[in-house]
């Protein structure tokens, strides 16, 4: 019996959920629970962690999962590693649905860095107005730089931000280049820090930064072992059809 676990949290995961539901496939959509109000999906949903590799491998066996599709964020390295190891333990087929990384083009002024500490070190130490487009999980390294920071979050922070001079805008995308051009202009942003999430859904800030000639500090994706990867939800559905009919 084919039973699919879709590890979601991206727009690509939501598109694939629609394809799976439309095809009448037996699938569960799993959210990590990072946001207070996750988007509804056309599949049965579960929210929360699994309890590491052991917990996830137990879940795969108990739920008789035959296929896992990891469509989490490219920076969700822990769940991706756990999914790979748990699938190996449980003997379950794994596919990664991941958007292509961004590449600098004409007019871009990017500094590529390996991690959050390096991103903070690449900024001026004082006087900059930085759009910190990295979410709220890894802000501490930037507290060492005496700049002003702008964050855009899906959910309002529950307490003070770990940055002395920070302002949060609460909004849920997708955003257009015009939206982000207005945001960067209105807040007099001088620098942008972004994770190389890739895809078109979050690219608007980079287009706006290019138009304004702003320097961008781009954090590269975490290194993960080689896995089977596709870039479009339609390709993931094709993989399922081929693997279940083989």
Query: Helical proportion?
Result: 25-40%
| Elements, N to C (H/E) | EHEEHEHEEHEEEHEHEEH
Low-pLDDT ranges? none
Average of pLDDT? 93
Shape: elongated
From the alpha-carbon coordinates, what is the Rg to the nearest angstrom?
19 Å
Q: Proportion of β residues?
A: 15-25%
Structural class, by secondary structure, is alpha/beta
Oligomer: single chain
- Main β-sheet description: 6 strands, parallel
Question: Strands across the major sheet, in which order?
Answer: 3-2-1-4-5-12
Total helices: the number is 7
The rounded distance between the terminal residues' Cα atoms is 13 Å
Number of strands: 12
What does this structure look like?
With 246 residues, this protein is of the alpha/beta class. It is built from 7 helices and 12 strands. Helix 1 (11-22) links the parallel strand 1 and strand 2. The strands form 2 sheets. A 6-stranded parallel sheet has the order 3-2-1-4-5-12, sandwiched between helices. Strands 6-11-10-7-8-9 form a 6-stranded parallel sheet. Helix 5 (177-186) packs across helix 6. It has helices at residues 11-22, 52-62, 77-90, 116-121, 177-186, 204-212, 233-245, and strands spanning 4-7, 27-31, 45-47, 67-70, 93-97, 110-113, 129-133, 148-153, 166-170, 191-195, 216-219, 229-230.
Please supply descriptive tags for the structure shown above.
six-stranded parallel sheet; alpha/beta; elongated; 246 residues; single chain; 12 strands
In short:
The chain has 246 residues and is α/β, with parallel strands linked by helices. The chain has helices at residues 11-22, 52-62, 77-90, 116-121, 177-186, 204-212, 233-245, and strands at residues 4-7, 27-31, 45-47, 67-70, 93-97, 110-113, 129-133, 148-153, 166-170, 191-195, 216-219, 229-230.
């Amino acid at each position: 019996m084919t039973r699919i676990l879709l590890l979601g949290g991206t727009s690509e995961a939501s598109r694939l959920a629609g394809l799976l539901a439309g095809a009448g496939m037996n699938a569960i959509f799993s959210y990590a629970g990072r946001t207070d109000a996750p988007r509804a999906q056309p599949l049965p949903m579960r929210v929360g962690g699994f309890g590491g590799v052991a917990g996830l491998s137990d879940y795969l066996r108990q739920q008789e999962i035959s296929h896992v599709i990891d469509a989490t964020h490219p920076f969700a390295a822990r769940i991706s590693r756990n999914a790979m190891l748990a699938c190996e333990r449980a003997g379950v087929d794994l596919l990664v649905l991941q958007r292509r990384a961004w590449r600098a083009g004409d007019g871009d002024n990017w500094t590529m860095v390996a991690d959050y500490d390096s991103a903070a070190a690449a900024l001026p130490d004082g006087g900059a107005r930085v759009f910190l487009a990295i979410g709220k999980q890894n802000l501490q390294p930037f507290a060492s730089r005496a700049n002003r920071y702008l964050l855009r979050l899906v959910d309002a922070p529950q307490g003070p931000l770990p940055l002395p001079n920070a302002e949060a805008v609460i909004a849920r995308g997708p955003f257009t280049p015009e939206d982000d051009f207005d945001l960067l202009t209105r807040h007099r942003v001088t620098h942008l820090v972004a994770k190389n999430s890739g895809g078109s859904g979050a690219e608007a800030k980079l287009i706006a930064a290019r138009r304004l000639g702003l320097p961008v500090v781009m954090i590269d994706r975490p290194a993960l072992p080689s896995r089977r990867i596709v870039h479009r939800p339609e390709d993931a559905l094709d993989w399922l059809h081929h693997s279940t009919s083989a």
